[in-house]
Amino acid sequence: MGIRERIKEELTKRCEQQYEKDLAAKKVTYKEWLAGHGDALFAGGQEARQQSGSVLLLQASDGVLASGAEDRIRSYFHQHPEVMIAYGDEDVQDPATDEFVAPWFKPDWSPDTFLSEMYWGNVVAIRRDWLEKLQDLKAKDLTAEALSEDALKESLAKLAVEAGGFEPGCQTIGHIPYVLFHADSAEQQTRCRALCMKDAVERLLGKESKATPMVSVIIPSKDHPEILKQGLLAVYDTLGEDKCEILVVDNGSSRENRQQIEEFLKEAPVPISYLYEPMEFHFSRMCNLGAQHAKGEFLLFLNDDVEMRCQGWMERMVEKASQPHAGAVGMKLYYPDSVRMQHDGIVNLPMGPVHKLQFLEDDQEYYYGFNTVDRNVLAVTGACLMVRREKYIQAGGMSEELPVAFNDVDLCFRLWELGYHNIILNSVYGWHHESLSRGDDESPQKLKRLLGEKEKLYRKHPQLKEGRDPYYSESLNRDGLDTGIRPAYVTAGNHIQISAPVKKKLDLGKYRRDNCLLYRVERCEEECIQGYGVVLGDNNACYDRTLVLWNPEEACPEQYALFPEQDALFPEAGGKITCYCIPLTGQYRPELAENMMDQSNVALCGFWWKPEPGSLPEGRYRLGMTARSKTGGTRLINWSSHELQTGWKGWNEK
Fold it and tell me: Which pLDDT score is estimated for 434?
């Protein structure tokens, strides 16, 4: 080995040692997080403590209450006089080490999740004076040393029903977002979750027996005769005894394709309408047009590229959508010929709506049943969405302010605001023929439209703008586009990098523009830019990364004036540009290490940056990244199609 190779080997070793040190500094243990998270002050003070006899605790014997849990419970009831029943988060105390592990962070009241599993857990708090007013259910019955499993299910079901948990707008069942209980073992949590409450609740509510309702299946489609035919055949093959009509809404297929569609629609075994109305693609208007012509009690919006793959799916969707508390109902969708998940519910995060579990294999249970039980979510995809017609009308239908994106999310948000609970069914599934390669290849114009529609979404729903989601705990991961589900403490060592960008001249002749620098911007707003940059095929511990902000209007005003929307308006290779540079400190992204196992030292390749107030002049910036090797001469650069607009009050539509 020559001296140059030995020097590089030593430098690489030092880089890897520093990487491991930095990685360790970013990791926070659950014990450390729990200690800080448990120090919140209790509201209510002495007044709340005096109510010691006003709350009854139904507690499992296989575990102990967390320190301060009783005070926290009393304080919660004091602050929320409308709440009659409350439950909290919990974890497991490892008997070998006495360490707390496996935190179970729960959603707010979720009636359909409750039907699937008794997710309230091992401690249920009940307001005593309310309990004493209930017939056939007294405190003495719940404080017996042992309740049989059947008696426990019946008692809990009665509590949930009496509290109005299966009526729209229930506010009487509360979630205390703190760890209240330490179970003796994970098996104890499993036993608790295994209590299926569906039969017990249905016995109390009564199950309506009526004629099978009509479902109107509304399919927007244009110039996809073969794809449409494939999807329709799958619907016919899996219908069973369900009654439905189908409405195909075509916004302008070519003459040849229109003829093909009309020919095979003649052979449909169910009533079918072909609504041909040429227009620019406008998903909301097409859905509303179909709904206006529909005769069914239930509306099912279905993409033409969704293929049903199991029997009984429509019956299950109708069963759920029929419930008084139900809003929109969706189902699990896979990528074709696989069990790789494309959709399993939409979570609202600070960066916007995210398909949690997307791209993950459905070969294991993820975080306490997210992919295994029918459960409540804030939104489901419009690719397969059922809703009772009267609730669709009550919510105002699909918003025509949102022609392409977020119209399905907006509908679900409005249904939730009306007091309904949206539902994802994990018990049925279909295939969604959406490209696996979709990613950061959108043009600036498409991204501008997408972000403009997201801005409209949150103007319509300001209470959800900061990422509130009642069905996804604040104690789960919420920063970045990690589609996995993990406790927030895992990345609690990350803190937003606040710094002033440095204005400098960058000599592009020294950098190679190359897609081996995988550069992804996930969130691009004036308050922060977030994403990651990975050098594929090399040791990422050996690279310094810099975020680059380039203003084309400032750099080449004449060209920009002629082509302000030009997709390819990026700095030319070989020239020098004046830009703003931000050396990146690295953010811990565990999912990068999990998803890129063939790449080296990628866990610190994330970035999360916010400019110091007033440090970045008003303008419109193209976003780039440079990566410079610390052990060799490699210098890489790549650009994103995302833009940062500073000093703006909203998107200017043209």
Answer: 81
Handedness of CA 31, 35, 40, 45 (dihedral sign): positive
Nearest to 304 by CA among 219, 371, 398: 219
Can you say whether the dihedral through the CA atoms of 375, 377, 382, 388 is positive or negative? Answer: positive
Q: Which residues contact 437 (CB under 8 A, 6 or more apart)?
A: none
Mean pLDDT by runs of 10 across the 654 residues of the chain is 85 96 96 78 52 83 92 95 97 93 97 97 94 76 64 92 97 97 91 90 82 93 95 94 94 96 92 95 97 97 96 96 97 96 97 95 96 98 98 97 96 98 97 64 71 93 95 94 94 95 93 96 90 97 97 65 49 80 96 95 97 92 95 94 74 36
Q: Where are the domains of the chain?
A: 34-205, 214-434, 493-646
Question: d(Cα 531, Cα 550) in Å, to the nearest integer?
Answer: 17
The Cβ-side half-sphere exposure at 652, using a 13 Å CA radius, reads 6
Nearest in space to 352 (alpha carbons), one of 413, 421, 423, 273? 413
d(CA 272, CA 218) in angstroms, rounded, equals 10
Radius of gyration of the chain (CA): 28
pLDDT (0 to 100) of residue 437? 41
21 CB-contact burial (10 Å; exposed 0-12 / middle 13-18 / buried 19+): exposed
Coil, strand, or helix at residue 260? helix
Residue 259 tokens, joined = 């003829």
- Check: CB of residue 326 under 8 Å from CB of residue 442: no
Tell me what pLDDT residue 654 has.
31
Which of 263, 247, 245 lies closest to 255 in space, CA to CA?
263
What CATH class has 34-205?
Answer: alpha beta
Alpha carbon separation from 240 to 69, 270, 375 (Å, rounded): 51, 12, 24
Q: Where does residue 367 rank: exposed (0-12), middle (13-18), buried (19+ CB within 10 A)? A: middle
DSSP 442: -
Residues facing 133 on adjacent strands: none
Tokens representing residue 511 in the block? 């950098």
Is-contact 56 128, C-beta < 8 A?
Answer: yes
DSSP string, 106-175: --S--HHHHHHS-TT-SEEEEEHHHHHHSTT--HHHHSSS---HHHHHHHHHHHHHHTTTTSTT--SEEE
The secondary structure of 276-323 as a DSSP string is: E---S--HHHHHHHHHHH---SEEEEE-TTEEE-STTHHHHHHHHHTS
pLDDT of res. 438: 43
Query: What is the topology classification, in CATH, of domain 214-434?
Result: Spore Coat Polysaccharide Biosynthesis Protein SpsA; Chain A (3.90.550)
What region, left, alpha or beta, does residue 223 occupy, with left being phi > 0 and alpha being psi -120 to 50 degrees?
left
Full DSSP string of 525-574:
ETTEEEEEEEETTSBGGGEEEEEEEE-HHHH-HHHHHH-TT-TT--PPTT
The position carrying tokens 């990791």 is 27
